[in-house]
Design a protein that fits this description.
About 85% of the residues lie in helices and about 0% in strands. It is mainly alpha-helical and about 220 residues long.
């Protein structure tokens, strides 16, 4: 093999190695860009969920005419979407400690909203049970107005309705206590992890304080 052929072969091999290295470098930066884009999307989604939960809590706090139906529709949809973000955050590549803090914050959002919805459901059940009590008394009064001795069924219906209403009230109060406890947990968490969550929009601390006070 002549010196010229050897030189050409060496040049070809060197060029191939260079192309391979450039390809690996290009692939590396492409992957990094894809990870960065996914992380930006996750941050934006978590910020959007945080703002939405804050708005929902504020609407309840300020009594802006939010019906139970609207609350449950908005809340349940938001829970599903936050749950999806939690799953994706757990497999993301945000780097520590941000990834752990962001995931934990999403869980805090989920728990506060879930407990809020549960408390409102219990309150709705208590209201419905109060209507049942009123209906039972009206039935009893019907007999009394006509000077008809109410049968044991009518009297028992009143007693049963009052017993169920008392239990519904107790369940609602317990649900609101748990909701208040979750609000306290979130407030403490946000204050503790604020430095690690600088890129995220947290629920307003003053609003959390007002809600906690109202539920105390």
């Amino acid at each position: 093999m002549t010196h010229l052929v050897k030189a050409v072969l060496i040049a070809v091999i060197a060029a191939g190695a260079g192309i391979g290295a450039l390809t690996e470098i290009s692939s590396f930066f492409t992957k990094r860009a894809a990870v960065a884009a996914r992380n930006d999307t996750l941050r934006a989604e978590l910020n959007e969920h945080s703002a939405a939960v804050e708005t929902l809590l504020r609407d309840e706090m300020c009594d802006r005419g939010l019906t139970y139906s609207q609350l449950f529709d908005r809340g349940e949809d938001r829970l599903r979407r936050i749950d999806d973000v939690i799953i994706r955050l757990r497999t993301a590549d945000l780097g520590e400690p941000q990834q752990t803090s962001a995931t934990a914050y999403a869980v805090q959002l989920y728990m506060v909203l879930a407990r809020d919805l549960n408390a409102n459901r219990r309150a709705l059940e208590a209201e419905a049970q109060m209507e049942a009590v009123n209906a039972a008394f009206k039935s009893l009064a019907y007999y009394e107005r006509r000077r008809i001795d109410p049968d044991s069924y009518a009297r028992q219906s009143v007693n049963d309705a009052m017993g169920e209403q008392e239990q519904a009230d107790a369940d609602a109060k317990q649900a609101y206590r748990i909701f208040g406890s979750k609000l306290k947990d979130m407030r403490a968490f946000q204050r503790q992890e604020k430095r690690h969550l600088a890129d995220y929009r947290l629920v307003d601390d003053a609003l959390l304080g007002e809600l906690i006070k109202a539920l105390s």
